[in-house]
Each structure stands twice: as structure tokens, then as C-alpha cells.
């Protein structure tokens, strides 16, 4: 355990132990056990089958597509696929749970142990164990604020397939927990099994957190439920860690309990005991037979897996000579990686990576867009990179051109032609300007003789005079000749 | 000519085919008979207009030369556990009083497709939980039979008591029931009719109000083995909407009925000789053995060693599933709601008012055996025993083709005789429950009368999905027994 992951308390260092349970909504046309649609945002209770409403005598029938998605996810996590799994009932009463039980998988999940490799900010990676993945139904939605005297229930979400993905208690900080969520989200989006949209609730997370003195056995944990953004997850963990350390250092004990994160106050607080005092009375759902998968079918799914983020990152580092950090940024989203590769093809890959990461992502972020709706196509950005490479424009001018491309959707060559932005590489022209500046600034020339770095000032002056269009390489050569060096 | 209500389904079918009778004649005769027999409380909902409309449609089809199927024009009574579109389906419970499903169960849909008509929805123990039909919110059903010299009403058995009473009383040509631990076979025996529980998975459960998912099966209740064969053929078959319904071919059950039992190996399980079984029950069982032997069957003594565990196993598994299955009756979506400002209180008041004592007892037992700390000792152990009980039968069926036992340990009893003692009630299922746990087909055939009058049944258990062989043996018993007694005060 490295020192930097310890949290320093009043009485010494503490180690933080975190495990995450992520609920990821499965991408499928229909719900897990009924034919009803899963589209988000439909009118309340418009996507509810008789099965979802738990009408008398209705029976669940497993949706093959959802099983396939769970298997695909398990394979992408390098996990073992259980060819026999069992659906259980988790029994509790709540208005948005029409049957009075949730169909889930308890003792025999469809997917067993796997691994997620975290990409840490310093470019390092760390393997985190995935304990299991199981399929279960989502509940409906209780709406408490629409009617002063009643709770309204929308069952559109009731019965939609979720994958619950449980990590080992391998995470040691809020940052690692955030990296885990981002990486898991990236993998799920690569393989198309979950859209990862946390704002719409397609991906939610429960965080199990405990602290202990280094080397001691595990402390009592708390579970903070329903964290719906990476930021909230990290804030909730940080709060919980500080709270637990404070309690323990004051001689108190941690109560094993379920907590909620209040994002407005940035703190966690216990759920009312009534909300969590459940004996779920799990037992195998007698309406469903054990789920048996054919090994060939699993192999066929495996054959369709795309190149996954870890493999892509390794390839980008090897083939394009990118840093771990840049490669990690580029592969996080498959569309970004594809875009980058289109730009990099036949060009200077590092230059392409810089343009994609620094310039394109910067403007896209500001505009609230993604590469899927970027105004600058990969071909257009490639064109710009080409014009830098052949000396038509300087890197500096290129940034202005790119901003204009982003704004207008025009290609680089058009903008350069319209605005006359071609780079001035004519040594004669640059010499003329250099002569004027040298003549007008004898003081700076004297400075240069003491400190050769002052050449930068002269470069700046020439750039200013040429509105940035002078070729920096030629400017340097000219100045060195004129100033001697 | 025989009154239409006296016909079997097969006879009515043939008369319809010949044009001796119209479906409307059949429906009208039964509607009148139902009105005259309301004292039995066999029906929760009568649907005379629907029955007439169904009959007219059947007559019209026949006039065009296009009868729908094996049951075209046959009016039937349907246990009020099968959801019927547009017709109240109450499960005999206050909590579903007034519930009108917007959908039709697969089984009833299959019957309508075969041309059958709906006379009404029959009374039952609440949520099919009971062996005497006294737990219904709609009140108890009265058995059309009486003891000799004793006019106290007898129970019809349960839970399909309304269906059994209706068929026995000649107010329906046939009926369907459901059987979880004996709920078709025991009332059939108590009312002197044939009751068949198919192999688990033979008939779809979709749209049938659930008691215990891993045990419930729909089946026919009729006045002859042939009628049971005809009805089963119309009901059975795969259903993509029920994962537990099995896609195996449905044979022509009627075709092989008269093939006899020569060479058939009939198992007699030693463990079913239970101490305290009345002599007349044992005697009838021995009579059944003799009948089959006389017709050429080979009688084989067999052992089903885990039989004594069947009842306790059943009374853990069935309530466990029921406790979960009945959670949906919570006052939120349909059925009864007793309002309250507090959610938990609304649940409590609704379920307290909506469920009767027997349902509450089983929900409590079920919740208990599934709860943390008890699951392994009860539910898990019961599941293991269930596997052993099924294994007993599997082993036995390597040497025999069917198993013969009594259907119930007694004839119909009077209301109040046992009905106040849940344990005595549960013992009624002692001979029927093992086949239920093993998922096997079984049938009760009326075979004689008890000393004081009411009928007794013999019980055959068959191999999985081999209802045909079981029906052939049942037909042999039916022939030998020549059961012709009728409930007192009815007919002739």
C-alpha cells in the first residue's frame, strides 16, 4: 500500500476500503421479462405490460437479448460466464414494485469473477476485481411531489433489465472509485450494453466504504445508495471517509447502515431504519427455470466483441507512440478513438493526438458537444494537420483557423484562402522585417548579447508584425543570422 | 331422450354432431339447472347471456359445417381462478372482489378456441387454499351428496369445490379446476366425478391466479374418463408466455382409452398403507387392485420411501411460494384498498381485510420458512426432500406404468367436522400431495360409495407426460366400477 493513498487523521494514517455496486441499465428494445418497450421519457405508465403491472396470473419470460447483453458484458470484463444461473425473488413491499418482489439473481449469478483495469491520472493502471455480475429487474418510480396527499407511481421503468456489477473491496480512494466508474462506463459503452447515461439513471452506484488502520482487519462499512454521477460518488466517499475517521478517532464506533448522499449539502446521512429493515426472503423464482446457456452461443458472442479500451490503449501507445495518458484519454470513448485514428491515418500521430485532445475536445466541451456531432469532421481536421505539416500555416495560425472551422464548418483551406492566412516563409520578406525591428531596438540587441534567450522577444515582434503568419523556423534562422549566435 | 344435463360431454358432442341437439338447447338446459341449484353455491358468477351467445355462435358454425373443435357447443364451468376477459375473476377472495381482467387465461382461451361456452365462474377455496371449499369469500359450497339418513350438508372438497359440485349436480357438462396439492382430485372424489391433474408443464399457467407456482396445474373435472380425455386434449399444449409450460406433443387422449390394461404394470406403494386409514378406503383400494388384475394388469408392490415427508414438504413449499405470489395484492394497483395516510398501514389494513384466515395462515407460514435464519432449516430442506420424493417415483416407474392409491383418506365430511382443525384438513391431501411434488399426472376416478353414502375415489399416478397410459388405466377402473350412483335428490 503506497503512502500517498493513506488518509492522515488526527491520530495517524487510515487506509480506505471501497467496494462499488453499479446498476447498469441494459440496452435492449424490451424489458427483462416482458415485451414492453424500454424507451426513456415516454408518458407515465405508457410502457407497462400486464406482466410489469403484476396483474394476477401474469408470468415472466426471459428476454434473450438481455441475457446476451449480460454475457457480452461479462466477456468484456474478462469474467467467467456461468452456463447455469438462477433467478431469485427478492421480496419486499413498495408501491413501485408491483409484484411485491424483484426478480434478481442471488446465489447463482450469470457472470462470475472478472477484472477492471483502472487508468490512473499518472498514467499508471491498477487491476480491480469484479466479484460478479447479475441480471435483475428495475423498479418503477414513485413520485412524491406531484400531489400533496398521494404518491404517484410510474411503472415505465418497472421490469427494465439491469446488470448489477459488484466490485471487490479493492478501491482505496475516491479517485480510484471515480476511475473505476469511468472505466466501467467506457467498457459498457464500447460493447453497447449500457449507454452509461448517469443523468438519466441508466447507471447508478452504491458505495460501500470503511476505514482501518494500516495492516488491521477490515472496519465496519456503510453503504451509500443511489449515487448518480461520478462527482457525487467521489464527494460521498470523501465525506464518508472523513466522517468515519472522525467518529473512530473520537472513540466512537461505525454503525453498519445504509446511507443517502445529500448532494445539496454534500453529506451522507443514514436512511430511516424502516427503509432498510428488510428481510428479503430470497428464494428461486418458481415461475422461471434455471437459465442454461450454450457454450457455443457464448463463444459466438465473444467473437463479436470489439477491440476494448485496454487493448486499444496498448495499441495506440505501441503504434502511435502516444503517452499512456494521451492514449487513455483517446480510448475512453470508442467514437473519440475512431475519430483520432481517422485523423492520424497517414499523418503525424502525435500531432494528430494533440489536436484532437487539446483543441477539438476543448471546443467540444465548451460547446457541450461530442465527436458524434462535431462540426469539424476527422477529414477536415486531418486537412488542417496537413496544412501545418506542409508549412502552409503555422501552428499558431492553425488554432485560429480551427476555431473558425469549428464555428463555420468550413474546411481549413477555404478559411486560409479567404483570410489570406498562408504562412510567410519567404526569407527575404522576413529579413526585411527583422532588419527594421533590430534597427529600432538597440537595447534589446544589447540584451541579446548577454542573454541569447532574448531572441524570443524578437521572434514575438516578427510574429506580431506578420499577424502570426511568419514561419517560425524561418524567423529563427533569419534572426540567428542577423543577430549572430 | 335423455335430458341434456344428463349427458356426458362425449354424448353431447355426438348428439350435436348428429343434429339431435343444439348448443342452445344444451346451454338453456344448464342455465335452468344452475338457477335451480343455487343452494349449492357452486357459482360465484353465472354468465347465462354469455353461455347463450357462445351456444348460438357454435350452432352457427355447425350450420355452416365448420365446427370449431372438440368442444364446439359444450357449455363449461370455470373455476374462478382462471382470468376471463370481461368477466369478474375473484379467486374466492375479498381482495379481488370485483376484479375484471382485461385478458383471457391461456387455458380458457384454448377451451373457447375448441368451441366451448362459458356457464359461469365456480366457487373455490380462497386463492385455492383449502380442502373443503369453506374458505371462500363467496361462502361455502355444498356437496350435492348427503349421508344416508343425515341431512347435514357435506363439504364438496377443495379447492375446486364449486367445479366438482357443479359437475356432480349436473349443472355443468364439465368444468375445469386447478390442482396444487390435490385440489382437483380430492373434490372429484368427494363429489363422485373424474378429476385429472396433468403433468406439471402440460397446461399453461398463464392468466391463472397463482397459488404455488411450482405446483399449480389446470385440469378437467368431468363425469367420465372419456370426457376428461376430451377436455385435456383441448386444454394442453405449449405456451410461450409460460416458461414452465413444456413443448411436448399432445396425443389424441381419447383414441387409446379402450385399449385395456392387459400387461400394464400397476404399482401399489407400501407407504400409502397409513395407520388409521378407514377400512372402507383400504377395501376400495384392494377392490381397485382386483379390478385391474382381472383385466389383465400385472400388480407390482413398490416402495416410495419418502412418502411420509410429502405433506410437511408440501406445507412448506406451497406456502413459501404463496407468500411471495400473494404480495401483489397490496391495495396499490387493483382489487381492494383500505385507505390510510400511512403506506404501511394501508398495506396492513388492506391485507387484513382482504384475505381470509386460511390465506393469512399460509402467507405467515410461507414468510416464516423463507425468512433469514429459517430458510435452510425449512425451505431448503423441503426442496431437498422434494427431489427425493420425485426420485422415489422415478425409480418406481422403472418397474411400473402407473401407481394406484386411494384419492383421499375419507369420504366427504360435514361442515364443522374437520374444518376447524387446520392439521386435520391438511391430512386430506396425504395421498394426492406426493404426485404434486413430483410434478406427475394423476387422476381420481369415482369407484364406490362409503358406508354412509357419499362417493369414494381411486387415484392413479402416471409417468411424466404419459397421461395417455394413466387415462387408459382410469378407463379400466371406470368400466369395472360401473359407478352409477347419483347425488341424492337429483335427476330421475
Overview of this protein structure:
The complex is a heterodimer of chains A (485) and B (492). Chain A is elongated. In chain A, the strands form 4 sheets. In chain A, strands 1, 2, 6, 7, 10, 11, 12, 13 and 14 form a 9-stranded mixed sheet that branches. A 3-stranded antiparallel sheet of chain A has the order 5-4-15, with no helix packed on it. A two-stranded antiparallel sheet of chain A has the order 3-16. In chain A, a hairpin with an 8-residue loop joins β8 and β9. Chain A has 3 domains: 3-301, no CATH class; 309-419, no CATH class; 427-483, Arc Repressor Mutant, subunit A (Orthogonal Bundle). Chain A has 485 residues and is an alpha+beta fold. Helices cover 40% and strands 18% of the residues of chain A. Chain B has one domain: Amidase signature (AS) enzymes, CATH 3.90.1300. Chain B is 37% helix and 13% strand. Chain B has helices at residues 9-18, 23-36, 48-63, 106-113, 161-168, 185-191, 225-235, 279-294, 310-325, 343-354, 357-370, 376-396, 422-427, 433-438, 467-481, and strands at 43-46, 75-79, 117-122, 174-179, 194-197, 217-222, 265-269, 298-302, 402-406, 442-449, 455-462. An 11-stranded mixed sheet of chain B has the order 1-3-2-4-6-5-10-11-9-7-8, with helices on both faces. In chain B, α5 (161-168) packs parallel to α6, α9 crosses α11 (357-370) and α9 (310-325) packs across α12 (376-396). Chain B is globular. Classes of the chains: A alpha+beta (485), B alpha/beta (492).
What top-tier CATH class of chain B fits best? Alpha Beta
Number of extended strands of chain B? 11
Biggest pleated-sheet summary of chain B: 11 strands, mixed
Number of domains of chain B: 1
Strand arrangement across the biggest beta sheet of chain B: 1-3-2-4-6-5-10-11-9-7-8
Mean pLDDT reading of chain A: 92
Q: First CA to last CA of chain A: what distance? A: 53 Å
Percentage beta strand of chain A: 15-25%
Task: Report the helical percentage of chain B.
Answer: 25-40%
What percent of residues of chain A adopt helix (DSSP H or I)?
40-55%
Oligomer: heterodimer
Shape of chain B: globular
Percent range for β-strand residues of chain B: 5-15%
Provide the CATH architecture of chain B: Alpha-Beta Complex
CATH superfamily of chain B: Amidase signature (AS) domain
Main sheet overview of chain A: 9 strands, mixed
Q: Structural class of the helix and strand makeup of chain A?
A: alpha+beta
